[in-house]
Structures are given as C-alpha cells and as structure tokens.
Specification:
This protein has 405 residues and is α/β, with parallel strands linked by helices. Helix content is 34%, strand content 18%. It folds into two domains: 177 residues, Rossmann fold (3-Layer(aba) Sandwich), CATH 3.40.50; 114 residues, no CATH class. The longest helix is centred in the last third of the chain and has 18 residues. The termini are close together. InterPro entries: DNA_methylase_N4/N6 (IPR002941), MeTrfase_CN4_CS (IPR017985), SAM-dependent_MTases_sf (IPR029063).
C-alpha cells in the first residue's frame, strides 16, 4: 500500500520532523517527533464530544492516520473501540469501518453516533418520556450521594423505558443520557463529580462533605435536549447515517474477531489497554448500571494485568488476529504510552516493536515502518533497545506504524 502524501499538522506547523531511531535486530526503526495534530480541544465534529470516555484518544489522532494511510472507501478497523472515535472519523472521511470492544458499553455509545437523529425528532421523543412515574426508592440501589431523589426517579424511569424502546431515536437518547450521568457542572444529573470516571460511592460522599452540599434537583429532560443540541450542531447527519449503515460493530475479545472477514481491513487505528493503568470496569460502573450491563461478566473477560509478559502475550495474540483481517500490505497504527513498571519508566512503543522481531511473538508478520511521537520528547530507554536520542521529557502519544508482511 502506498501512503498518501504526508498530511499537514492541524496546528499549522510545518512537517520538519526531528527523527531518532530504535535499534532492533532487524535494523533501525525511525522514531519521528513532531506536532502532527493540534493540541487544541474540540476542533473536530461535535459528535466526537457527545460524551467523555476513560482513556480515549483525541479524534485528531485517527484523522491523521486515516488521511495519510488510506483512501475513500477503505475499511478502517479498531479492535479496542471505546467510544467509537476511529470509526466515526472514518465515516466522516468517506471510509467504512469495523469497531470492536469487550465491553458492550462501547457498542451502546458508538451505534448512536453513527445513526444520529435530528434535533427535532429528539426533542419530540424526549417530550413524551414518562419520567414522572412514582417510584419506591427504598427498593432501588442507593445512589443518594450522586442524585437528588426526584432526579433519581426520572433516571430510573428513563432506564426502564429504554429497556423496551430501542429505535434510533431512543438509542440516541440513551447515549446522551449516559453522557449526563455524572460530572462537574449543572448540565449533569449528578452533584459535583468527575465527568470521565464513575467514582466509588464513598468517594462521592467525601466530595459532598468537603463541598458542604447535598445533591440538588437536576431536571433530566432539559439536560438531555441541551446536550443533544451541542452534539448535533455540526450537522452532516444524512451523510453519517449513510456511512454508519456500512459499519460493522462487534462485542468480544480483540484476539478473536470472528465477525471480521479475512483480508477485509485496510488500516487499523487503535489503542489497547496499557497493562492495568486504567480500570475500564470500575471506572464505568455507573454507565454499566444504567445500561443494565453485567459488570462482573466484563471484569472476568477484560485483560487488565499488572504483568508485562501477560500483556505482551495479549498484544501479540491481538496482532496475530489483526494479521488475519488485514489486506496484504495493510497497516496498523497502534497508540501506546509510557508507564511506571517495577519502579522504571517503560515506553510501550518499544515493547510493541519488540513483538514484531521475536520468534516467540509476531516474527514474520509485520514490518515496523516508523514510530510517531506527538509533540513531546523521548524519555527513557527500554532494556532491550538502544535509542539514539537522549532528550528528556514526557510522552503522551506514541504510535507504532506496522505493515502486514
């Protein structure tokens, strides 16, 4: 596959890269440092910002790689779909998409973004929601640290309604409701809390005590409508819906993408878990509760390990499955980070590169073309690689670009 001409960074800077390299047993791998996309917030389509999601990357990241390494009509995949950033941007750029995640919450979030509805239809449906039905809150989960009793009644009634009403308007309402469950402004349903993380109940009690407040009444319908207007403001709805119909959404293990046809994907843009740095189950417990998803079942399936060898095997097995679904010469742009491991700073891009050169893992499956480091400087060397660059700093986005052999 021949790449498209190098995309100009969204920041407007020139593409005068600074280049280092990682030495491997198969020769040096270029390591390119630059500001490839803007650091500014909310510069892409408004649907990308319909809700926060733990450990998700900015839409500028998949936008950069989709523009540079694919063409209109190509299939773009993400086996760790999260909030659907990769496939939504693929559709916006005239590509097709496949998105997968072990957590069913990802599908509940991504589908509505790819099937947006008009604000008129949204408002009309919200007006009919039976949220004022009486409830015996003593028989419900105690969420008094988050919600005023009247707000909680409305949330419970909305949750019950969505169990049996599943057309595209209802599913868009559900996605918007998920985005409003907790946060730090009056636009959320909860008392002052964290927007990206569902914190434990005990932590929320401490926040309330520190601030000297109790949850106040937050009317649900008006907040749904206000957020929906914001999410839909950039339009292109018919175009997105038409593209969304061609997107394949699956729920399952990234090591077994059985619903993705062999040699069907041109480019993968993804970000796997960084060992156990994020607890994807605990950090979304309010969202899974609202959607009626069995968090225990997810916890038993998701790979969140503190062991580097176990993580390497997991990523290796995922790469092997992606090798099956990629077309000949297809590419993977895998975003990883730097973590503290056994007291040392470990750059996971080097770990991923090592998988492609090891007989134990993915030898003969991929050729690493380059590693991209967004904006910031390289920091620490891994034990098995010699990097010809000694500038200190902190890395946030490290993307390993691999080509299927």
């Amino acid at each position: 596959m021949n790449p498209l001409p190098l995309a100009r960074p969204a920041s407007g800077r020139s593409t005068a890269h600074r280049v280092g390299q990682i030495e491997t047993c198969h020769g040096p791998v270029p390591k390119i440092f630059d500001e490839f996309w803007t650091a500014k917030q909310r510069q892409m389509h408004s649907l990308h910002y319909a809700l926060s999601y733990r450990a998700s990357f900015k839409p500028e990241l998949p936008d950069f790689f989709i523009r540079q390494f694919s063409r209109p009509g190509d299939v773009i995949g993400d086996p760790f779909g999260g909030r659907g950033t990769t496939v939504l941007q693929a559709v916006l750029l005239g590509r097709q998409g496949c998105s997968n995640d072990i957590n069913p919450l990802s599908e509940r979030i991504t589908y509505p973004k790819l099937h947006p509805v008009s604000i008129e239809d949204f408002e009309a449906r919200v007006a009919t929601l039976p949220l004022d039905l009486p409830r015996d809150l003593s028989k419900e989960e105690d969420m008094s640290m988050f919600y005023h009793p009247d707000t909680y009644r409305e949330i419970l009634n909305l949750r019950d309604y969505l169990k049996t009403h599943r057309d595209d308007i209802d599913r868009f309402i559900e996605m918007i409701a998920i985005s409003r469950l907790h946060g730090h402004s009056p636009g959320f349903f909860s008392a002052y809390s964290f927007p990206q993380i569902s914190i434990p109940k005990a932590n929320q009690i401490k926040i309330n005590q520190t601030r000297g407040v109790e949850p106040d009444y937050r009317e649900v319908k008006s907040r749904l409508v206000k957020k929906a207007r914001s999410a839909l403001k950039d339009g292109r709805l018919e175009e997105i819906v038409a593209g969304g119909r061609k997107v394949r959404l699956t729920v399952g293990d990234a090591r077994d993408l059985r619903e993705w046809p062999t040699e069907s994907v041109h480019l993968v843009v993804t970000s796997p878990p960084f060992l156990n740095q994020v607890d994807y189950v605990l950090d979304t417990w309010i969202e899974t509760w609202f959607c009626g998803i069995d968090a225990k079942k997810i916890e038993d399936q998701v790979v969140q390990t503190p062991d580097l060898d176990e993580w390497m095997q997991f990523i290796s097995d995922t790469l092997a499955e992606l090798h099956r679904v990629l077309v000949p010469g297809g590419l993977i742009a895998m975003e990883v980070g730097e973590i503290r491991y056994q007291g040392e700073l470990l750059n996971l891009d080097e770990t991923v590169v090592s998988l492609t050169t090891s007989r134990r893992f993915n030898l003969g499956q991929y050729r690493v073309r380059e590693v991209y480091v967004q904006t910031q400087e390289f920091t620490k060397l891994a034990n098995c690689f010699r990097v010809k660059n000694n500038v200190l700093g902190t890395n946030t986005n490290r993307i390993v670009l691999m080509e299927k052999i």
